[in-house]
Design goal:
Blueprint: E1 14-17, E2 28-30, H1 32-52, H2 64-90, H3 102-113, H4 118-123, H5 126-141, H6 166-183, E3 195-200, E4 203-208, H7 209-227, E5 255-258, H8 277-286
Length: 304
């Protein structure tokens, strides 16, 4: 089988299901944000672990930018999922809102779902923090920096985004935590808070992102800082404003389902022999670096 074909394997992927529309693909909306948030969570943890394991110099992480990107994607996917569900019930084309800014899409949710509390939600100060996260993300994704400091007043994001480290991951995770928490119960009978896949021995289970952020990520980060006598000025949210559920749909009209059985065509026989193919290619590449005992690390060869 071609590996491209495996991209059609949706085993383990969740979807929002609208029973009144039948049981075909037209009745489903893929829950993409769950998958993105899982990847984000583990990237954050791996970079904090890298900081903990620092030796000689402080390890500021090797996949910080990837983690920041995944956190923003998770957040945007979460908001879009809420809007897509509303569009489905109200027979509106989601494409109408695709070009809205993230902050405008959040404002749209209050109107589409007819839920109160918009002013109280804005009073938490989350929107300016979200706006700075968007600006921070855009600087990285579009590589617009000329080395000039940006001015972030509401967050602890790095003034030179390409130099971001673990504290930027905590700041981004905190903003996700606030948004996820506020909107988690807007649909009757549904908890939208992302589930994180956690292995336990020979099996696995799920824990909610808010629990893991509060009880794993945050204390793990601060304990690691303490180990190396480091400090931070970051301010984390002390309270969350929980939005009420909408009345535009009734409990049971929206469900979450999971693809639990793999299609037989994807049952591929795996070679379980232990090999070192990747390691051998990397070691061959390392042999191309010629360093004598009296030489030190130096800049790469940028001239011809």
């Amino acid at each position: 089988m071609e590996i491209e074909e495996l991209r059609k394997n949706t085993l383990g992927h969740a979807s929002f299901w609208f029973p009144q529309f039948g049981r075909d693909d037209n009745s489903l909306i893929p829950m993409t944000y769950d998958n993105y948030t899982i990847k984000s969570f583990y990237t954050v943890c791996q970079n904090i672990e890298a900081l903990e394991s620092s030796n000689v110099i402080v390890n500021q992480g090797n996949t910080i930018i990837i983690g920041l990107g995944m956190l923003f994607i998770s957040l945007e996917s979460y908001i879009n999922s809420i809007i897509k569900i509303a569009c489905k019930f109200q027979n509106i084309d989601f494409k109408k809102y695709k070009k809205f800014s993230l902050t405008k899409r959040i404002a749209l949710i209050f109107d589409m779902l007819c839920i109160p509390g918009k002013n109280k939600f804005y009073q938490t100060g989350i929107m300016p923090r979200l706006q700075e996260f968007s600006e921070f993300r855009n600087e990285i994704f579009h590589d617009r920096s000329l080395g000039n400091d940006l001015d972030f007043k509401k967050t602890s994001f790095c003034n030179l985004p390409f130099l971001a480290n673990q504290v930027d991951l905590i700041q981004a995770s905190s903003i996700c935590f606030e948004i996820f928490s506020s909107f988690r119960y807007v649909y009757p009978g549904i908890d939208l808070m992302p589930n994180i896949f956690i292995k336990k021995g020979e099996t696995a289970g799920y824990l909610k992102f808010d629990y893991l952020f509060t009880n794993v990520v945050v204390p793990m980060f601060f304990d690691t800082l303490k180990k190396h006598s480091l400090e931070t000025k970051i301010k984390l949210p002390k309270s969350i404003y929980l939005l009420p559920e909408t009345n535009i749909i009734k409990k049971g009209e929206l469900k979450v389902i999971l693809k639990a059985t793999q299609d037989e065509k994807f049952n591929i026989k795996i070679d379980q022999n232990k090999t070192e193919i990747c390691k051998s290619y990397f070691e061959n590449a390392q042999k191309q670096i010629n360093i004598t005992d009296d030489e030190y690390f130096r800049i790469g060869n940028y001239y011809r």
